[in-house]
């Protein structure tokens, strides 16, 4: 999991020299933040995609048991996972480019980073619970409702993140 602060430190000698140019070092730091931000969101989406295999396993288990009426909630859950993964992959970058009309300052980027760090544990928990779904064929509705709650928490964090970036959040 990339840390933007460490990500910036692991650059080559040319970029290290460019950091000494007034005004350019801040641009580089924001560029590193953008790369880290994209890596974090990609990692989060990949983790949910990995956990989604558990839904497939649950569907197979329920089908083999002849419990076709329980398949609709499973498909609904898979759709919700896909929606959250799509939002993660398409979320606006926590960065503004050198020539962008609206500039995002470092303090706002730190708040975006804090929201993303908060999502990490929820995504890990969601991935782990999704992976355990095939073992919970007796408690399908309970397990699916728990997963929906975790996905809603991730979705809410993404909305908080977007609000911070747009300047509409009181968390600024």
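Q: What amino acid sequence fits the structure above?
A:
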């Amino acid at each position: 999991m990339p840390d933007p602060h460490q990500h910036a430190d692991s650059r080559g000698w040319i970029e290290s020299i460019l950091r000494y140019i007034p005004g350019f070092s801040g641009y580089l730091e924001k560029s590193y933040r953008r790369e880290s931000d994209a890596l974090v969101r990609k990692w989060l989406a990949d983790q949910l995609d990995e956990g989604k295999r558990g839904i497939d396993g649950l569907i197979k288990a329920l089908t083999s048991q002849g419990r076709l009426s329980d398949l609709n909630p499973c498909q609904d859950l898979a759709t919700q996972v896909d929606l959250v993964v799509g939002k993660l992959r398409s979320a606006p970058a926590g960065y503004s480019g050198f020539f962008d009309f609206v500039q995002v300052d470092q303090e706002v980027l730190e708040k975006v980073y804090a929201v993303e760090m908060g999502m990490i544990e929820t995504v890990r928990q969601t991935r782990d619970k999704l992976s355990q779904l095939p073992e919970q064929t007796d408690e399908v509705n309970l397990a699916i409702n728990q997963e929906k709650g975790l996905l809603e928490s991730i979705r809410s964090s993404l909305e908080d993140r977007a609000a911070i970036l747009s300047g509409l959040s009181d968390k600024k």
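Q: And what stands out in the fold?
A: Residues 97-102 have pLDDT under 50 and may be disordered.
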